[in-house]
Specification:
This protein has 356 residues and is mainly beta. 10% of the residues lie in helices and 35% in strands. The strands form 5 sheets. A 7-stranded antiparallel sheet has the order 19-18-22-15-16-21-20, with no helix packed on it.
């Protein structure tokens, strides 16, 4: 018996051309990847998250691990600004974060009164024009006991609040939403995690209601990818473009903030070299007492009579170099070297801020 087998015709030239395609092993892996996450893992995509300190690890302004009163519009946790019209407590939570996020902390706001209002925390993104006319996705891990925790986008003129809400069961849940930003209509881009009505107005809030978040990420595209972990040092440097602080401690109550020289018998000009160049020329943050600071000249320490002030003249500060005027009542020698130091005060600090 004769068996006849027929095969479909093939174009041998095309088949050989396909074999010569320079995909390589890595190219074949990219072609076989089923999700954007797999592709990103293969090529090591970085710098996708436009949020700074989204893992809530950096807190230069202080230790807020104990619940304390929060003030609206104030920065506590680095790069995050409070936004609430009710009384609330803030707290930096250092344990029990989502199992999907290792080595993170979280930020919590808790209402301390029962009323109608809103309560949340936001971050303003500097490079907002990057999003013009493009889809971007915000994602976050949220824990709450209130049914109206959502994203809220603010562009400086128009608003687009998120429609999706987190589950109000006191457990961690992953929330994501895709937006389109119109930079021609807006002047800024802020992303908030907030208790707010769907219409973007006040809602009923009971004392003890809270919203806690970590792993906040904003990225181009309409797919939320896994949270981008950056090293502590890199994240700190990103935060320091907007705020940086030098503190005295109980172990170093005479900390030197900068060095310079005396220009009169009552004024020393001191130069501070910052570890990171700031986003724009900053303002200075100090404690409320002039006597917390002193000028060290020769072998003498003389308390300041005025809180040290930043010299804003164009030729007195550039990049990461800032000049401070340090005034005392008398006793300085013109031309003598001097330094600005904490005057035996463990609470004394000197900070520079250039927030958006």
């Amino acid at each position: 018996m004769t068996v006849r087998i027929e095969k479909p015709a093939i174009n041998l030239r095309e088949e050989l051309a396909d074999l010569r395609k320079p995909t390589g092993i890595a190219g074949e892996a990219m072609l076989r990847a089923e999700t954007p996450q797999e592709q990103q893992a293969l090529i090591g995509v970085g710098r996708k998250n436009l949020i700074i300190n989204g893992d809530c690890n950096i807190s230069q302004r202080g230790d807020f691990t104990t619940a304390s009163s929060s003030t609206d519009e104030t920065y506590y946790l680095d790069r995050f600004q409070q936004n609430h019209n009710i009384t609330a407590n803030k707290q930096h939570i250092t344990s029990n974060q989502p199992s999907a996020l290792s080595n993170t902390k979280s930020w919590r706001l808790t209402a301390t009164a029962t009323t109608n209002g809103f309560m949340g925390t936001r971050q303003t993104i500097e490079d907002y024009k990057l999003f013009n006319g493009r889809e971007f996705t915000a994602s976050v891990w949220v824990k709450t006991n209130h049914p109206s925790v959502r994203f809220y986008l603010f562009d400086g003129s128009n608003t687009d609040q998120g429609k999706k809400t987190a589950i109000a069961d006191g457990e961690w849940h992953y929330l994501q939403e895709t937006f389109t930003f119109d930079a021609t209509a807006g002047t800024k881009l802020s992303i908030e995690v907030i208790i707010l009505s769907e219409a973007g107005s006040n809602t009923s809030i009971t004392s003890g209601d809270y919203v806690e978040f970590t792993g906040l990420q904003v990225e181009l595209g309409k797919v939320a990818t896994p949270f981008e972990h950056r090293s502590y040092g890199e994240e700190l440097a990103l935060c320091q473009r907007y705020y940086q602080i030098s503190r005295a401690t109980s172990g170093a109550p005479y900390k030197r903030f900068g060095r310079g020289g005396n220009v009169s018998t009552t004024l020393a000009e001191v130069t501070c070299f910052l570890p990171v160049e700031m986003r724009a020329f900053p303002s200075v943050d100090t404690t409320n007492s002039a006597s917390d600071y002193a000028v060290y000249h020769g072998s003498t320490v003389t308390a300041c009579s005025v809180i040290p002030a930043l010299n804003t003249a164009a030729d007195d500060g550039a990049g990461n170099v800032m000049t401070l005027g340090c005034t005392v009542s008398s006793g300085l020698t013109v031309g003598q070297a001097s330094a600005l130091l904490a005057n035996n005060s463990a609470t004394c600090f000197l900070a520079f801020k250039s927030e958006l």
